[in-house]
């Protein structure tokens, strides 16, 4: 009714339909919506659990492909209690490269979503990660601005890496529908 033709799901929501494929497909048909993307997250900076994180991501990416999604978006990069080290950026980039390979092998377009609360939320942190990986960039306008960045400027800088975008408005610590916050969407879109 709102005019959308597609939607994105969090991996946890998609996994609920792993054994109920007909139910989700029926709902998609009834609503005339297609699954466009799936979002997953992982810590990536802890080598001892990387295999487990990638197992979870592989399962989500396989389901995304099975349901016809074209995009696989991943966030991640935990922050250690002792702070973020140079090695953490390399570990994050390595994990992102593994996700990119996995998603590409399944016919999905992979991209990285810098997320609040991770070691890659501020502009300089995002740049460090992108210096170490070739994964695409899924800018989330609200997350980028909430972390002290300028989403329009980050989109300009990393525009050649963008296959997919999350548009949200933001104001005073709150994510909002488009047009209800302080973000300049004319500038962002241009």
Keywords for this structure?
190 residues; alpha/beta; 5-stranded parallel beta sheet; 7 strands; 42% helix
Provide structural commentary.
- The chain has helices spanning 11-15, 21-31, 50-66, 86-105, 123-130, 141-146, 151-157, 185-189; strands at 6-10, 34-42, 71-76, 109-112, 136-137, 169-171, 174-176.
- The protein is α/β, with parallel strands linked by helices and 190 residues long.
- The strands form two sheets. Strands 1-2-3-4-5 form a five-stranded parallel β-sheet.
- β4 (109-112), α5 (123-130) and β5 form a beta-alpha-beta unit.
- α3 (50-66) packs parallel to α4 and α4 (86-105) packs across α5.
List the helices and strands and how they pair.
Blueprint: E1 6-10, H1 11-15, H2 21-31, E2 34-42, H3 50-66, E3 71-76, H4 86-105, E4 109-112, H5 123-130, E5 136-137, H6 141-146, H7 151-157, E6 169-171, E7 174-176, H8 185-189
Parallel strand pairs: 1-2, 2-3, 3-4, 4-5
Antiparallel strand pairs: 6-7
**Average pLDDT number:** 97
Which structural class matches the secondary elements? alpha/beta
Largest sheet, strands/sense/barrel: 5 strands, parallel
Query: How would you sum up the global shape?
Result: globular
Helix content: 40-55%
DSSP E strands, number:
7
**Unreliable stretches, pLDDT < 50, 5 or more residues?**
none
Would you summarize the structure shown here?
With 190 residues, the protein is of the alpha/beta class. The chain has helices spanning 11-15, 21-31, 50-66, 86-105, 123-130, 141-146, 151-157, 185-189, and strands at 6-10, 34-42, 71-76, 109-112, 136-137, 169-171, 174-176.
């Amino acid at each position: 009714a709102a005019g959308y033709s597609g939607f994105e799901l969090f991996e946890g929501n998609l996994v609920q339909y792993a054994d109920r494929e007909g139910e989700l497909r029926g709902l998609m048909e009834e609503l005339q919506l297609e699954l466009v993307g799936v979002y997953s997250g992982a810590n990536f900076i802890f080598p001892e659990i990387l295999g487990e994180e990638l197992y979870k991501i592989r399962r989500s990416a396989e389901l995304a492909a099975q349901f016809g999604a074209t995009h696989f978006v991943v966030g991640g990069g935990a922050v250690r209690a002792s702070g973020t080290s140079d090695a953490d950026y390399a570990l994050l980039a390595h994990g992102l490269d593994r996700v990119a390979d996995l998603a590409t092998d399944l016919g999905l377009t992979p991209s990285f979503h810098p997320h609040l609360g991770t070691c890659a939320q501020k502009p300089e942190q995002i740049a460090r990660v992108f210096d170490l990986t070739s994964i695409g960039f899924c800018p989330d306008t609200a997350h980028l601005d909430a972390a002290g960045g300028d989403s329009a400027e980050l989109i300009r800088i990393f525009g050649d890496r963008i296959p997919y975008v999350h548009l949200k408005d933001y104001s005073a610590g709150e994510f909002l529908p488009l047009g209800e916050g302080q973000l300049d969407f004319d500038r962002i879109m241009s």
